[in-house]
Design a protein that fits this description.
alpha/beta
């Protein structure tokens, strides 16, 4: 792996810089792209960072161009990191046949089934490779990293936070897939990436992971926002299952349900400031 990622583009933004990078990934075995917003405070020392995991069909540009997060992130001194949602160019047969599986739909796990297992290793990519690369090469505080995401990325944020609590100090989500082993998106992805044995899926289901906790892994609280006009809510998202799991584990959860809001980035932009402040509070030194 290159010691420094390749800078593809840089733009001044609210006193900081919006950057787009590419690097050769050892975990994925292919070039991977990601974006970083560095607030003005990063010029004088390491700053806390939030990694945002996007949803199905999105890429490393989606959040930075649609969410409207940079203005407040600059004020709060938060860096923002947005990786791509899957490998690109693996040339796995059928990887582009479905919008909810394969390219743009890596589900933030390490596939165990051939042919996906060679390149579709998003969990290890994020936790073992990308974050260490960024904290070593940019002015980021490795001890103050939060994670959030949307839809499939909300699933990723919750599961990775629960599996790696020492790495992530705060977590939130927009319309996350809360119980993927119980919904069509998750069952399709898990069957393809992990195989037909449903017991192997449970390590990637946020509601199951939370049920297994003997105490609250995030005592400062988890924030989830869900639109009630979201067409995917009834069949795919199941926030009530995660809510029940948090109650069982004693995990503080703020689950806000909003009339009139759907699944898209107008919804995300509306409540983005609350999420940034949620993380800023928990990432204080």
């Amino acid at each position: 792996m290159k010691t420094q990622p390749e800078l593809l583009g840089e733009h001044g933004c609210f006193g900081g810089t919006q950057r787009f990078y590419q690097h050769e990934s050892n975990e994925i075995g292919l070039p991977m792209k990601f974006s970083v917003f560095l607030p003005p405070q990063s010029s004088t020392g390491p700053v806390p960072a939030l990694i945002y995991l996007a949803g199905l069909t999105c890429n490393e540009e989606t959040f930075m161009t649609k969410a409207g997060a940079q203005r407040l992130a600059a004020e709060l001194g938060l860096a923002l990191i947005a990786p791509d949602t899957s490998p690109r160019g693996a040339k796995v047969p059928g990887e582009s046949d479905s919008w909810d599986f394969g390219v743009g739909a890596g589900f933030y796990l390490d596939a165990t089934q051939a042919p996906w297992s060679e390149n579709y290793r998003m969990e290890s990519y994020l936790t073992v490779e990308l974050l260490p690369l960024l904290t070593a090469s940019l002015s980021l505080d490795a001890e103050r990293i939060g994670i959030f995401g949307h839809s499939m990325g909300g699933h990723g944020a919750l599961t990775l936070a629960l599996k790696h609590p020492g790495l992530f100090k705060s977590v939130s989500a927009f319309a996350p897939v809360c119980a993927p082993s119980q919904c069509p998106w998750g069952r399709k992805a898990f069957t393809g990436y992990l195989g037909a044995d449903e017991s192997d899926w449970l390590a990637h289901d946020a509601s199951v992971l939370m049920q297994q906790k003997a105490s609250a892994p995030y005592p400062g609280g988890i924030l989830i926002d869900q639109g009630l006009a979201d067409k995917f809510l009834p069949a795919q998202l199941h926030p009530q299952v995660f809510e029940a799991a948090c109650t069982l584990a004693g995990q503080p959860l703020t689950l806000r349900r909003h009339a009139g809001y759907d699944h898209g980035y107008y919804f995300i932009a509306t409540f983005m400031a609350d999420h940034l402040r949620h993380h800023a509070d928990q990432l204080q030194p």
